[in-house]
Amino acid sequence: MGDVSRQGELTPTVAWLFAAAFLCLVLPARAAVAVYGAGPVGVVAAMTLFVLPLSYTVPPGRALWARRRNPLLVVQAVLTYVPFVVFGQDWVVGLSGLLGGLLLLTVGAPASWVLFGAVLLLEGILRADGSWSLTIWALTAPVNMALALFGLVRLADLVHDMHTTQAELVAMAVARQRLRAAGLLREVIGVRLEAVTVHAKAALALITDSPGQARDRLIEAAGITRQALDRVRVAVARDDRAHGPPKAGREGDTADGIQGGVVAPRVARMVLVVVLCAFSAQTLVNVWETAAGVSAEVGACAVVAVGALQLRHTRDRRDGVRPQGWIWTFTAQTLLSVAPVWVFDEVNLLGMAGFAAGSALLLLPGRWAWAAFGAISLVAGATMAAYSTYGLYDAVYAATGTAAYGLVVYGLSRLTDLALRVEAAHRELATSAMVRERTRVARDTHDLLGLGLSAVALKCDLVVRLIDRDDARARNELGQLLRIAAEAREEVLSVTEDARGQLSFLHELATARDALGAAGVEVRTDLPMAPIPPPIDEVLATVLREGITNVLRHAAAEWCVIRLSAVDETVLLRITNDGARPAEAAGTGLDNLRARVGDLGGRLTAADDGAGRFDLAVEIPLAL
């Protein structure tokens, strides 16, 4: 919708102005009609009917309506029906639609539609005089007014919803994904760690009396841990394949049942079609009452053609793409709205000029759209003044009525289009949020749990070797194994939570020494630098975890050197080991680490010299 704002998006302010502008344009048109049958008092009565609907179209008025809905509806009903008592059949047809629109906006469905039907029924009863044309007018005019107000206000709500609920949608999508990931990780890893803990405790009790059973328990525990270690790298990816992208539910719902726009696309389309058909029916009634012969036939054909062209312009105009041949169809629609008036002197056909004005806003670019909109409205007013007997009153009625229903046509067309786009955008937003969360969980699962699980498996292997050789050390190592397993279980939960405890480089260094020592790898460290800023410390801790995990899984290392230093306001971490296997040296988590380091403006490099020496280096600037 580049004809409204730069990027084709209505802003909430502009959307609210559409509803207010519609009422402000309809007001003088209805007041002009009131002059004929009700005089100056009727004009004042008609104007008062617009006060409360106008208040609902602006945000400050919404607060008042939220607190005083029922009394305000009673006031609107009194203002609507007292003029019937005073003026009778001379009262303006259709103004009860303002009450109907407010009922649709403020009362929940289906009660709102029942009450709206009651308003239409009462209008029909009050207008009953045996005239079929007045009966049709009595039914269609309030429908036009009510649904136009309802649709334009809901358009504003929809735009506001699009601008304000994205964070909520993202949070809901992320929460759903976290629940799913938490359940999956508990199933894949948590349950296995619990089993490892049971085996380790049993082995601790059996070391002295039944060393063979203790070994069996620990061998089984090591196997379970390695199985969990293998699964941890693919669990979330498999969850992605199993669930696929989120699916939409009912029309108007977004991914995984998250509610989409305020007005569902189906309702938006229904409102537009009903308003177009009702307005066309009103014009047909006027033409049949005042014309005869060829004039009536041509007029009826013109009404049907203009309405059909409008449906085509509305239906085919999607995402800035105009319907094929739009120049010709728009030209034909505009001429059919005014040319029969000039040829057959049938001014009632000017009612269809609002469709052409709406199509101008839909089809023409930028300022040309508004220029054409204004020109069509002015031509309608001037034509009415030239062919009618009431001069200025009729000119005001025709010009403002054309502009008002041009806005209705445009607004309701955009409502349908926008409802579909917001539905799709919300689904895409929720999908993207869920995919990002799955990626984050997969990354954190890989980065945070790999070393702990490797350490548990290595401790099991070490204790198996120590039983009957050094039972005291075996018991000590089993105690450490239980502690590491408990920490790993906590980390399984922390992966799917917002408030995860911050990792510490020194804590991870102690864990790394312990895990490498259990694997028989000699560890040398060089750590002369001062305390590290927290964001850098956490990233370095994560790098150390993954680096040591790779040493344990992808190398037959005999030694590993860990160096940390600061040079020219840059923190340098280097992890070097021997025994690297070229085909596997880099492991599978370095892309995750590069992303983490890159977020801090740093750089990660990994190099294999081809002779079994692997070097992982990280540089992060201290000035974040």
Task: Give your account of this protein's structure.
The structure is a single chain. By secondary structure, the protein is mainly alpha-helical. Helix content is 72%, strand content 6%. It has 20 helices and five strands. It has helices at residues 12-48, 51-56, 59-67, 69-87, 96-106, 111-127, 132-164, 166-206, 211-232, 235-243, 265-290, 294-316, 326-344, 353-363, 366-387, 392-466, 471-494, 505-518, 534-554, 590-599; strands at residues 522-526, 559-567, 570-577, 603-608, 614-621. A five-stranded mixed sheet has the order 1-2-3-5-4, with helices on one face. A hairpin with a 5-residue loop joins strand 4 (603-608) and strand 5 (614-621). Helix 8 (166-206) packs antiparallel against helix 17 (471-494) and helix 12 packs antiparallel against helix 13 (326-344). Mean pLDDT is 78; it is low at 1-8 and 239-262.
Shape: elongated
Rg value: 37 Å
N-to-C SSE series? HHHHHHHHHHHHHHHHHHEHEEHEE
Mean pLDDT: 78
Low-confidence stretches: 1-8, 239-262
Helix content: over 70%
Structural class: mainly alpha
Strand proportion: 5-15%
The end-to-end distance, rounded to whole angstroms, is: 41 Å
* Main sheet makeup: 5 strands, mixed
What's the β-strand tally?
5
Spatial arrangement of strands, main beta sheet? 1-2-3-5-4
**DSSP summary: helix tally:** 20
Report a brief summary of the structure.
The protein has 624 residues and is mainly alpha-helical. It is built from 20 helices and 5 strands. The protein has a 5-stranded mixed beta sheet, covered by helices on one side.
